[in-house]
Every structure is written in C-alpha cells, then in structure tokens.
Design goal:
Number of strands: 0
Number of helices: 11
Order of helices and strands: HHHHHHHHHHH
Structural class: mainly alpha
Shape: globular
Distance between the termini: 57 Å
Helix content: over 70%
Strand content: under 5%
Length: 202
C-alpha cells in the first residue's frame, strides 16, 4: 500500500487496525509493533503515529473493534425467536463462540489491562458500557427481574462463569479426567445453564 494513496483515501487508520488485528491473532497482542505494521503496509515508520500516539492507543482501538464485534453478535441473538431464556442462552453461546473464533483478540480485550484503564468518557469505556447494558437487558427479560441489585449480582456471576470457561478451554486446562464422558456440546450447555442460572418456570 502506498502511503500517499492511503492518506488520500483516508484509510490508513483502518488499515493499521486491520493489520494489527491480524497480527494479534497470529502472534499475540504482546508482540504487536507499530514499526512492523508500517513495514507490512509499506508506509514510513512515522506514518502510524499520525493516527495513533503509541502502541497502546492502537491496542485500545483494536479492543474497541473487538467489543463492537461482540456487541453485533449479541444484537443478532436479540433478534432470535423463542423465549427470553432462549435469547439469554444464545447470548452466552455467542460470547463463547467469539472467544474461540478470535482468541488473540479475546485476550487483548480482557487480559491486557486495557479494561482497567477504560473510563466511561473514552471510546473503550463507552462500548464496554454499551455491551454490558445490552446483556443486562437480555438477562433481565429472561429472569423477569425487577430488582437491580439482584440483577447485577446475576450478571457478575454470568460473566465470571463464561469468561472462566472460555479461558480454561482456550488454555487447554480442561483435562480428560475433568470432562469424563461429557461431550463438548454437553460441557458448554452445562456452563451456559450455570451462567444464566435458574429461570422462571424452570
């Protein structure tokens, strides 16, 4: 890609994000280098810094893209037919599928320390808040819960369960003797049941 053309079309910023996302999946976010990305995109070493102050700024942009993708996946589950409980379980499956399909991005989003730095006023904090609100609405409908404190407790339990299982699976920490005769589908179903918790009428 020619640098002049990239700036002419205003696409260098997105090209850097796309190349960074690919590098994160191939090598991990720890190895991401602005200098390497500049070489891949055939631009000068200084060109990326016109769009991102430093490596962390690019990583934050990648994390934002990850949360937007997760938000889109959750939005698709909200359109599914069935009960509110079905949609809550579908949202859980979407989260686990995302974590498995994009493990490098998932680690960047949740394990890089970026979330600890996120503020409600910045882009990362805003998109995180948005997806939390969407999941909260889905779970509230499934639980028929009107008490905010109880709902928040259930949300934390749900995220903890899903995240924990996703990381165990990603790190190959689930040994055969732990799984026993359970199939992959049965294991995931059990995790989702535990994550969502008891639903009205069940």
């Amino acid at each position: 890609m020619n640098e002049t053309r990239a700036y002419h079309h205003g696409n260098l910023r997105q090209s850097l994000i796309d190349a960074a996302l690919e590098a994160v999946e191939q090598q991990g976010y720890q190895a991401l280098s602005l200098r390497d990305l500049a070489q891949v995109l055939e631009v000068s070493r200084g060109a990326p810094y016109r769009h991102f102050a430093d490596r962390d700024a690019l990583l934050r942009a990648c994390a934002c893209e990850g949360f937007r993708r997760l938000l889109d996946a959750h939005g698709e589950t909200a359109q599914e037919t069935g009960t509110a409980g079905d949609r809550a379980r579908a949202a859980c499956r979407a989260f686990l599928s995302f974590a498995e399909a994009q493990p490098g991005l998932f680690l960047l989003m949740y394990d890089s320390g970026l979330l600890q730095q996120a503020e409600d006023e910045d882009e990362l904090g805003a998109v995180l808040h948005q997806i939390y609100t969407g999941i909260a609405t889905t779970l509230r409908e499934a639980l028929e819960e009107s008490d905010d404190d109880r709902l928040q407790g259930r949300l934390i339990a749900m995220w903890s369960t899903l995240y924990g299982y996703a990381r165990l699976r990603q790190s190959n920490m689930l040994k055969p003797y732990m799984l026993g005769a359970l199939s992959r589908e049965q294991t995931e179903a059990a995790v989702i049941t535990a994550a969502v918790g008891p639903l009205p009428g069940m």
